[in-house]
Amino acid sequence: MSNWGNPYQPATPNPQAPPPQPEPYGVAPVRAFREAELDAMHRSAAKQALLIRWVLAIVLPVFILLRTAGEGLAGVGGGVAIVLVVIASSWVGAMFSRRFTGQRHDAVVAARPGLDVIEVWGARGLQGALKAAGVATPKMRRGGATSLSMVLSTEGLELWSGRGSTVAALVAVPWSAVAAIDETRGSITNDGTRPAFMLVTAIGQRLVFVPRTRTNGGRVARVPELRALVARLDALRVGALAR
After folding, report:
1. Three-state SS at 181
2. For the chain, what are the domain ranges?
3. Dist CA 64 CA 74 (whole Å)
4. How far apart are CA 99 and CA 163, in angstroms?
5. How many CA atoms lie within 13 A of 222 on its CB side?
6. Whole-prediction pTM value?
7. How many percent of the chain have pLDDT more than 90?
8. Which of 53, 133, 216, 224 could form a disulfide with 98 if both were Cys (CB 3.0 to 4.6 A apart)?
9. DSSP H helical segments within 112-182, as ranges?
10. What separation in angstroms does the CA of 30 have from each of 24, 39, 59, 180?
């Protein structure tokens, strides 16, 4: 298993540097303002994603039907068949994805008994960020989103990938290597972004994950669920640093 290790240890403090400023989240008005900013970001991105989905749901079938309309009734029937095949393929793909995710989740729980395991999408760009940090990513999609299991503990977090007999730990990240955790948006498909959380490492890299709600993946988390998860992760991080 690759380990984040030394590259992410905090730098030696400069004795001449000014004392660190208080964490903004500790001030209630600032926190409320920050959450209002995040809520606005989520609403704007959700409207954009909804528009894209409606365009894809309407424009694509109409385009196919128009292309086949000139071939008469048989052509229209063929166009309808193409649309139905696309819908059925998406449904079958989602069904198999849930099955594989559930199998991986069970395997990780068995390998890490007593620890919390959540399912996430590694958003687009994660593979490149991990590779730049020296982590081998043979089971991650280059340029695309990857389904991953995330193990949470008081020491840090682990990412697991694969399915069936190929399930394996990808990387371990100690909390000492995480400088901050925050809400953001992550891209996993071509129809907009989803609520996501971002780990900012001690050397400034941003690792973005889209959390999912069930052990077999299920839907992506909504904003209140995301916010609760971010608070939980940050509590683990702060607790580890305080020890």
Report:
1. strand
2. 24-242
3. 13
4. 10
5. 1
6. 0.71
7. 39
8. 216
9. 126-132
10. 6, 14, 43, 17
Query: 160 has which bridge partners?
Result: 149, 169
List, in sequence order, the alpha helices (H) in 70-183.
72-111, 126-132
Is the separation of the CB atoms in 194 and 186 below 8 Å?
yes
Pick the CATH number of 24-242 from 1.20.1300.10, 2.30.29.30, 2.40.280.10, 3.10.350.10: 2.30.29.30
Average pLDDT, the chain: 78
pLDDT tens per residue across span 126-168? 998 888 888 888 778 777 889 999 999 999 999 999 877 789 9
Query: Rounded CA gap, 235 and 243, in Å?
Result: 12
Residue 222 CA to residue 148 CA, distance in Å, equals 18
The per-residue b/e assignment along 200-212, b for 16 or more CB within 10 angstroms, e otherwise, is ebbeebebbbbbb
Token pair belonging to 27: 């001030």
Q: What is the pLDDT of residues 12-51, one digit of tens each?
A: 334 454 443 433 333 344 555 577 788 888 888 788 777 7
